[in-house]
Amino acid sequence: MAKGRKADALHTEAGPTEDGNSGTAPGLPARKLAAAVIDEVLRAKLSLDDTHERLAPSYGLDAADSALARAIAITAFRRLGTIQEAINARLERGSPRNSGPFEPIMVAAAAQILFLDVPDHAAVDLAIRQLHEDARSSRYVSLGNALLRRLAREREAILAEAVDPFLDTPEWLAESWMESYGENVAAAIAESHRDEPPLDISVKSDPEGWAEKLDGLLLPTGSIRLRERGGITGLPGFDDGAWWVQDAAAALPVRLLAPKPGERIVDLCAAPGGKTAQLAAMGAQVTAVDRSGPRLRRLRANLERLALTAEIVTADAAQWQAEPFDAVLLDAPCSATGTIRRHPDVAWTKSPEDRDKLVALQARLLEAAARLTKPGGRLVYCTCSLEPQEGEAQIEAFLKAHADFVRKPVEPAEIGGLTEAIDRNGDMRTLPQQLRNETPRLSGWSGFYATRLIRL
Ligand SMILES: C[S@@+](CC[C@H](N)C(=O)[O-])C[C@H]1O[C@@H](n2cnc3c(N)ncnc32)[C@H](O)[C@@H]1O
């Protein structure tokens, strides 16, 4: 929610704080939760969504305040480079040592002052109240107060200076994208991550009709892009299970698999089930495998709402054995750098070492997927990563070692005529800045790689 734009849920007022007594100032618990989430995600390298979900209950927030806390934390990660640079440039000796929660409180307040439609005085006062509450940070109340007031005064200059799109991208990722895609494309990727992502849905049937009913944009690939964000559970068709939320690029791998009614298909890393739902909705007899019990519970609940069925198996897909299938989908665990626009914390929690470990796991899962594909069957491998090690290079190595598999190149018509999303080998490579729309929030999609192989 950009500064200056109307955002009712974000307007929160707070009283004066001369004595540092927090009492029950409106909006304070939301700020505390935001700072706690930022702190824990950065320190423990955890996912923002999981951390928010785990910590939120102990803050006793209503839905609006919980959404505010999430908006603050997600904005902080989306613009973390800009925020850290603005703070560091105004703290002569950097953040004080042994200052407890000083840093996350400053980052959360800076996100509000620079980027969110929150009154500056509320952001500043509530941050100061938090500093008072911890013995380690209470020594730095004057410093924090001066810093935040300066950020508010100098906001326009700070934003005008933050033009370099790589400012909000960790160095290893910027280098990786420059090497893989060239400087201009890498800059466009980084730039696109600064905007909030679009909200797309997949429908069981009748995309034209649902696009009209929901006043959405019917994308050339068949997904529908909603014009408004906000609560989805109250929209027509949600309770009836007519559609589910799924990024438009994430919906493409199943299109490449082209399931036919009655075919036996295994979805090897299935939870929370977006692609399982697509396969089942197209009439396939689906087996959904995942090693995570909690994530499979979400898959089960999603399928129940959609009135779709699949056999659900909790197992390590690298070890799991079964009769070979007509088709196999492997949506492998990955660094998820293609989803940074939706999950900006990913950029700051993943490392090249994480990526390399995942590359090894993906190779093991691919071996299992190959064994489970019957002769003449299709194997679609995909990842929501922008890193070629997890996509193009992974498949190059696989094909070198498996003479019994050949690539079946993607045809433009299979992905809505979007030739820009097909690479020179005939694999699908979507980038976050593609699928442009004049309105930034309706523009782009996730970065995905997908290849379709046939077993001879
Ligand atoms: C990219 S997500 C899958 C998203 C899912 N296909 C969808 O469209 O909703 C990757 C999944 O792989 C699962 N996973 C990771 N390692 C696994 C393994 N060895 N065996 C089975 N599942 C695994 C994770 O639990 C996670 O749910």
TrEMBL record:
<dbReference type="Pfam" id="PF01189">
    <property type="entry name" value="Methyltr_RsmB-F"/>
</dbReference>
<dbReference type="InterPro" id="IPR001678">
    <property type="entry name" value="MeTrfase_RsmB-F_NOP2_dom"/>
</dbReference>
<feature type="binding site">
    <location>
        <begin position="269"/>
        <end position="275"/>
    </location>
    <ligand>
        <name>S-adenosyl-L-methionine</name>
    </ligand>
</feature>
<keyword id="KW-0949">S-adenosyl-L-methionine</keyword>
<dbReference type="InterPro" id="IPR006027">
    <property type="entry name" value="NusB_RsmB_TIM44"/>
</dbReference>
<keyword id="KW-0489">Methyltransferase</keyword>
<protein>
    <submittedName>
        <fullName>RsmB/NOP family class I SAM-dependent RNA methyltransferase</fullName>
        <ecNumber>2.1.1.-</ecNumber>
    </submittedName>
</protein>
<dbReference type="InterPro" id="IPR035926">
    <property type="entry name" value="NusB-like_sf"/>
</dbReference>
<keyword id="KW-0694">RNA-binding</keyword>
<feature type="domain" description="SAM-dependent MTase RsmB/NOP-type">
    <location>
        <begin position="161"/>
        <end position="456"/>
    </location>
</feature>
<dbReference type="InterPro" id="IPR023267">
    <property type="entry name" value="RCMT"/>
</dbReference>
<dbReference type="InterPro" id="IPR029063">
    <property type="entry name" value="SAM-dependent_MTases_sf"/>
</dbReference>
<dbReference type="InterPro" id="IPR049560">
    <property type="entry name" value="MeTrfase_RsmB-F_NOP2_cat"/>
</dbReference>
<feature type="binding site">
    <location>
        <position position="331"/>
    </location>
    <ligand>
        <name>S-adenosyl-L-methionine</name>
    </ligand>
</feature>
<feature type="active site" description="Nucleophile">
    <location>
        <position position="384"/>
    </location>
</feature>
<feature type="compositionally biased region" description="Basic and acidic residues">
    <location>
        <begin position="1"/>
        <end position="11"/>
    </location>
</feature>
<feature type="binding site">
    <location>
        <position position="290"/>
    </location>
    <ligand>
        <name>S-adenosyl-L-methionine</name>
    </ligand>
</feature>
<dbReference type="GO" id="GO:0032259">
    <property type="term" value="P:methylation"/>
</dbReference>
<comment type="similarity">
    <text>Belongs to the class I-like SAM-binding methyltransferase superfamily. RsmB/NOP family.</text>
</comment>
<dbReference type="Pfam" id="PF01029">
    <property type="entry name" value="NusB"/>
</dbReference>
<dbReference type="InterPro" id="IPR018314">
    <property type="entry name" value="RsmB/NOL1/NOP2-like_CS"/>
</dbReference>
<keyword id="KW-0808">Transferase</keyword>
<dbReference type="GO" id="GO:0008168">
    <property type="term" value="F:methyltransferase activity"/>
</dbReference>
<feature type="region of interest" description="Disordered">
    <location>
        <begin position="1"/>
        <end position="26"/>
    </location>
</feature>
